[in-house]
Each structure stands twice: as structure tokens, then as C-alpha cells.
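We examine the record.

___
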Amino acid sequence: MELRYPIILIIGIIMIVLFLFFSSKKKKSYTNGTKIANTKYLKNNKLFQKKLKKYQTVLITLKSLCIFSILISLILLARPSKVDSKRSNEYNRDIVLCMDISASVYELDADLVKNLKNTVNSLKGERFSISIFNTTSVTLTPLTDDYEFIISTLEDVEKGIDISLNGNEKLDSGQIDYQEYFYYKSFIRDGTLEGNTERGSSIIGDGLASCIYNFSNLEEERTRIIIFSTDNDDASEPGKKIITLEEAAALANKKGIKVFGIGTKGIYDNKEKEFKEAIENNGGKYYSESKESVENIVNDIEKTSKSLLPGHIETKKMDIPEIPFILLLISTTSFILLNKKVKS
């Protein structure tokens, strides 16, 4: 136990000592009342001596209780406390949603986003990130456990895809205005087509590789997952892509990241074979788009083990006034009862 403000106790003790010192000095003369003569017989009386001794004992006890109560009150004012240290360990995992945002993947992305909103609502402690790519990659949310922000971003992506697919009809019917149309359409396009005239579009390997580096502190042991949606229809110009899909999948495996790949319904057979082999040869899992596939990928992620993360040590001071308060209660109660006895 320690005191937060020990100076209060020190000053209080000094004042008590000074008070006792000056009050203990006996006065040589009587200043009040009149002395009674011939009290020798009374003072020698055994009954009187017994009563006087009892009175003096009670009086000393009252003074002691009073001093004790003052000391305990000073201790309470000085705030007795203890230091409590706890290390919080958490089971955690990092998940990055990596979406090919080219027009041919819109329907798959919309289904994926819709299902993931429910999954994010059930997360506890996991960090989540959203990244979209076409020619270039854009991180919409960094790894975060701010689930309201994640869901809000997923909803914006969902609206962006819906307007990209059905925007003209919605404009004609008055369901949206031009401001909303351009905002949500731009939300999923801006930044993803940088240099597309020179490099082409749907650069699949670059998109996956960029999502790998959305994870922080890759040297640390953690459970890391990428949900990767694409039709694997690479339209990059010859020699303009930085990394192939196979190389990106191998890089993910080297970094300890498990990739859950999901292909569109309209994916070409040769593209699907290439996609599936790249993912499964590097420790990941491949899914074909279907009514159940998005639910299956979410369920498989839920089954993936989480990493045990050593949490931070939280140190805080906790007030512990219980014992001093009980002692103060006992002493003041005893003082009141004895004082009544003396008066009676």
C-alpha cells in the first residue's frame, strides 16, 4: 500500500504532536473555579480512588480514540492506494478484402460486400482492411478495428457498384441525383486507373501484391488473411506489370498470409485454372462464384485459427480506502459510546 499524497499525513502528524505538547503543560495556578479545603479524606477514600481511576482510564481512551480517528482521517485524505498491473492477451487476426474493381467483377464484389457486412458485425478484436484495384490499387480503409467505419465503407462500395451497374436507370427514375451518381461512381474508380493508357487494366498480380503490404509488421507472428475477388482477366500491356499472379501468391505464402480466392461466374476456364493453381499451390483456397460460395468463404475464415497476441501491460493506481474507513467507523462509534458513558 502507498499514499498518493503523503504530505497530508506528515503535516497532520506534526500538528497533532504540537497540540499534545502544548496542551500537556500543567498550569501552576487555578484560573477557573474555587479550590475546596479539606479534600484529603475524600481523596483517600477507596471508592473515590476507584471511580477516579476508572474516569481517568476512560478519559485517556477517549483522547486516544480521538487522536486515532484524526490519524485515520488523515490517511484517507492522503488516499491509500495500490498499483495494479495486468497484461491483456488477445486472440487476433488481420483480414484484408482485396477486390478487383473492374466492371466484369461488379456482381461478385457486390455479393461479397453484402455478406461481409454481417461478418464484420460479429468481429471481436480482429482488424479489417478494404483495398480495391484495377490498374493501380487504392486502400479504402487501413487495418482497423473501427467496425462502424468498415461497415460504412463497405456500404459506400456497395452503392458505388450499384450505381455503376444501374446508375442511368436510377437517374431517369429520380431515385438518385447527379451529385450522388458522380460521388459513388467516383468512389470506386478514382485512383484505380492511374496510368491505364500506358499500363492497361485489371493488373491482377500487382493488385494482390499491393494488398499483401496492407499488413503492418509482416515480421511479427500473426494470423493474416486476404479475401481476393477477381475474374483473372489480366489486360495489362506487355511488360508493364510488376509481378504475376503466381509470384504474388507465392509472396503471400512466404509472408505467412493465407489467400482465399474467389472467381466470377463468367471466368474463362484457362483463367480459372491459372487462378486456382496459383492460390492452392501456395497454401490458399479457391472458390467459384455461386450462391453458397461467399457464405462458405466467410465460414472458412471463421474457422481459421487466431494468433495469440501478448497485449500491453496496463498499470493503474487503485484507491483502497476500505480498511481505513472501517477503522474510522469503529473508532468514532467507540468514541461516541464512551463519551455518553462519561457524561452519565
Remarks:
- Residues 46-77 form the longest helix (32 residues).
- The mean pLDDT is 85.
